[in-house]
Design goal:
The structure is a homotetramer. Chain A has about 350 residues and is of the alpha/beta class. The first copy, chain A, folds into two domains: about 5-125, NAD(P)-binding Rossmann-like Domain (Rossmann fold), CATH 3.40.50.720; about 150-315, 2-Layer Sandwich (Dihydrodipicolinate Reductase, domain 2). Helices cover about 35% and strands about 20% of the residues of chain A. Chain A has twelve helices and 13 strands. Chain A has helices at about 15-25, 45, 65-70, 80-90, 110-115, 120-125, 135-140, 150-165, 195, 210-225, 255-270, 315-330, and strands at about 5-10, 30-35, 70-75, 95-100, 130, 145, 175-180, 200-205, 230-235, 245-250, 275, 295-300, 305-315. Chain A has a seven-stranded mixed sheet with strand order 8-9-7-10-13-12-11. A six-stranded parallel sheet of chain A has the order 2-1-3-4-6-5, sandwiched between helices. In chain A, helix 1 (about 15-25) packs across helix 12 (about 315-330), helix 7 (about 135-140) packs parallel to helix 12 (about 315-330) and helix 8 (about 150-165) runs parallel beside helix 10. Chain A is globular. The interface between B and C is large, with 53 and 54 residues.
């Protein structure tokens, strides 16, 4: 018998992607999808790509219905909304993967600083595991609630982790991130209006994007310092999907490229969803389109004093829905790659 | 034991897509891939999206090797090259799906007219079945060699077939077709150079694209007329994948939209890969991206005298590699949807 | 002394383009720009491309201020809003070019049918001249109020006019039109949200776009028939600017391509803003990007029974703001090309 | 009488842009355009956007013809080719602006290191002035030969110059640059093939793009250090035109944003082609599309220890052809903005 899955907040692009992946999962069965604004509408009417794969009708959220119909839930709600439903579901003992930022900070004060909202369930934040399987697989395995990482933090941390762990990094780390427009969601804004966003590139939230807080929190856990110096600048790129991070790490000591490769291979050679690219090949977001893979490569700067890390993910898959399914697989004791081993759709 | 598949001409986008789909197919195993220009290179080096799914090395074509290693072959060669290898493989009794145009015309003279090449194996052309399963499923089932349709003809004929069969059409049929740039292949040309092709649209081969010949041949078989009057104008659209056909059919007699829906549902309601869209919803190529589906809708013009048919496919999947796998499934007696039932990747 | 120009409704893309062109015009001076929603904001804050060229502050519309400050006005308001201000300005004797649809139909009933709005000043509609200079130059010269044509009608009528005038056309004319997304304006909609509109193409308003009414009205004037049979289907193309019309005209009698060229050259060889492309060269919207030119070409279908007309314009220039300036030049007795003779920005 | 201009190497995108700008220049007259590959072809056949503005026929290069026909020349040849013609033209006393890299390095050894070519006229390199008017206006005014800067160095140096001059910069400067695809030229390559380049982003030449050498050379002149530490990583972005530089400058001392603005305004407030954007507004390449402007803004990182500089230019205008005309204006004693004061074409 299949495991019954609910998607709370299913009308956005992350919800669509969750529905697509649950539909393809051999051990999951989608039993409930909710969306306030579109209650009563078939999801395949919003997204004809789902026709025949998921023709469920979106419902208003009702805790008792969800608790009865679902063995596990994926929260696709916006930040600020997830925490309104998480506590009750948690108390009902239902395994939760929350894709919002609400449960990503162990310390709710930190959340309140970056998101400007009063936290409604700091006790859940405290126990929620940060769902980056490459770093926290064991903890996820034991977790009842997982906070699925943000798209930028996922791309940045997967690239940085081995270098940080191996203590290669000197002072300030620069993360220059580039995102496709779907990362901004389905909400209409001037920035994501086609004539404003197409055929152009621009930076945004230069002095303090919320994901900087999340990245800093996680880096602190890895390197055990008080104030990691991180600069993070995101950019909007005229493409649908994908995040590319170019990360500049000042090297503490001289090191050659083969030693770096050894460190990265040591960390990642058995990882299902991280691919180290061959020497001289750099990530292109299109190569991971529609897939749960992170492509990673590294290079020394011309003066050999800076390590340049590059990573590409699909923001809606490894950066959101795919990673959520990966986490759920681990939580439920299923093979981690179940329902997720699709190659990218290129070109 | 899995069926061993060879892809002859595997370095182009169609070859890549064939490799991706064979890798995902539960009953197929890829045993041989060839490409003259890239012999010795791993296909996943050309296309990092395949890393871990298909890391085979491309070989030079060698008939005896292919015949030994493969239970069935997919020919991804350019038109003019396929017919050089098809005859021998056919004589060796190996099931073939040819994705080039070489075997699409029953009458080789017709091929020679449209392609300007001497045909090398008219006897194979004569027995090859035109691989549009929605029209010729039974014949494909019995075939040893299948000519996989062109991308434009696939999109056009799926939209037209029910209307033609129901004798709705009066005089000249106009097919205005719009294609993503991957339809032009991986060969470098000025027309497909990014700065020429991006952020613009233009028609090409207005007075006689080769696919017009193929569409006319097939329409003749459906409606049994000598000279079907067809105008076909293709356009290059700044997108990667996808074909949209907008087809204008002068109505022989007045008919209302519900009767038309009845005709289309009668024809297609059991088809695995054709989806009729609900009233007022029109196809968008992105909804079928990466998938083997054809989305079809229809509408009456404002004066109700012209039937407007619209269809969208992914040119590399239903318009090429996906349809080839569908044909191979049918030829080999496997469930037609095996390895092909993935929803489109939207957005 | 320069002619003082006002732009009423200046915050949208058409308003921006009007401001850009007025700023470049040697005989015009922009003295007043209005926009309800952005009153008090500098237009160069909305559009940094205007920095240093136009730094005027947007004002609320005030009839007496406009009448005092301006020698002529350009109405960039949405359809339904223009007619609210046109009457008073007309009575004040101020030359007007209205870019909305409000004054395009001589017969206000026709407007009411297509726009679903009660017309507020049918008497102005009756005297307003349809501002397609290639057809109505003399009338524009004498006009006090000009209705600037829609973008689709401009592209379609310029391509069709010589063929219609020369009585080449048989029955139903098919206009398959493709537009860049800026044609839908600056208003946020799901259809123009980047992730929905990028990397895809789709038709819209298949059974009756408003511009069909306008095209039909104009064709009637040219060919003097009651019910010209026109099918018009617009499509959204993932590009910023540009309209391409592909028009299928059934030929009344056989004709060869050189005779057609003669007809087109006869009509257009002295036209400043229409360029007939050489044989075998087809329009690409990017070649007219940012310019007031219409590129036109024609070809016979393979069976020589259908004339295929192709035209490309920049929807915001020849399809809107540029044509408005061209009309204003004519109305004010200035050289028609003044301030408009810029080549397209390619690539 | 107009100044007679020749464009040597006129068939590429830079050549096209030079032709467009010369055609619009009130004091220039284009008398000679050359291109080996397209000799005998009208440039407006290659680029229909030029129809009626420049219909000259491309010729083979002939030194005596050029010397006779032209009062000044613009060299649009590829690096390695310019130096073959520069010496003779220089000796003939013809003012030259060279858009290749051949004359950009005072020390030819430096050129040979970065370009891997033997320099053919180091004596010209020594006297050529680096054509960044914002830095070297006086020297350009006296020059006979000007080396037009690369597109990346232009964008980077304009952003960096005031900060460098004011000694704000600590150690390593990171330049993360993003370019539209036209920057790679009209030459066909796999990287610029639409299906490879569209809807994706990727870094290239991470460990040593040639423009790094040029940027380092120039920074040395500004800050008078031996080895400025610069990391430069370029990226290909799916857009036609535009370069965005995001530059990370570690601050030597604490400074607030208003002091930085003062420094930048002090340097640039009278510059014709540099625009400082208002607080909180960041550059978007589309705002400078088709124009000669550089848009610059700056921001402090969240921890206030890093200065983030951002600049956007059109790579073909301020990054190539426009700047060449600006240099030529200065060299010839014409008003610097002559023929160049067009706003960007947005959207």
């Amino acid at each position: 018998m299949k495991i019954r899955i609910g998607i709370i907040g299913a009308s956005g692009y992350t919800g669509l992607e969750l529905a697509r992946l649950v539909a393809l999962h051999p051990k999951f069965e989608l039993t409930c999808i909710t969306a306030k604004k579109y209650a009563g509408v078939k999801i395949s009417e919003l997204y004809p790509s789902l026709l025949g794969f998921c023709d469920l009708v979106l419902e208003e959220y009702d805790e008792s219905v969800v608790s009865e119909k679902c063995d596990a839930v994926l929260l696709g709600l916006p930040s600020g909304e997830s925490m309104k439903v998480a506590l009750k579901l948690y108390e009902n003992g239902i395994p939760i993967v929350d894709l919002s930022a609400d449960l990503r900070f162990e310390d709710a004060n930190n959340y309140e600083y970056w998101y400007g909202l009063k936290h409604l369930c700091p006790e859940i934040s405290r126990v929620a595991v940060y769902g980056l399987p490459e770093l926290y697989r064991n903890e996820i395995n034991d977790a009842k609630v997982v906070a699925n990482p943000g798209c930028y933090p996922t791309a940045a941390l997967i690239a940085l982790y081995p270098a940080l762990k191996a203590s290669l990094c000197g002072s300030t780390i620069i993360i220059d991130a580039k995102s496709g427009i779907s990362g901004a969601g389905r909400q209409l804004t001037l920035e994501t209006h086609f004539p404003q966003a197409a055929d152009t590139i621009s930076p945004y939230k230069v002095s303090g994007h919320r994901h900087l807080g999340e990245i800093e929190s996680e880096i602190k856990k890895i390197v055990k310092v008080d104030n990691p110096q991180i600069v993070f600048v995101p950019h909007l790129v005229p493409m649908n999907r994908g995040i590319l991070c170019t990360i500049y790490v000042p090297l503490r000591n001289e090191i050659n490229i083969d030693e770096i490769r050894e460190i990265y291979e040591g960390e990642y050679k058995n990882e299902l969803f991280v691919r180290l690219l061959d020497k001289g090949i750099y990530p292109s977001t299109k190569s991971v389109q529609g897939s749960n893979f992170a492509h990673v490569s590294f290079e020394l700067s011309h003066d050999r004093k800076t390590l340049v890390l590059m990573s590409a993910i699909d923001n809606l898959v490894k950066g959101a829905a795919g990673q959520a399914i990966q986490n759920l697989n681990i939580m439920l004791g299923i093979y981690e790659g179940e329902g997720l081993l699709w190659p990218g759709v290129f070109p």
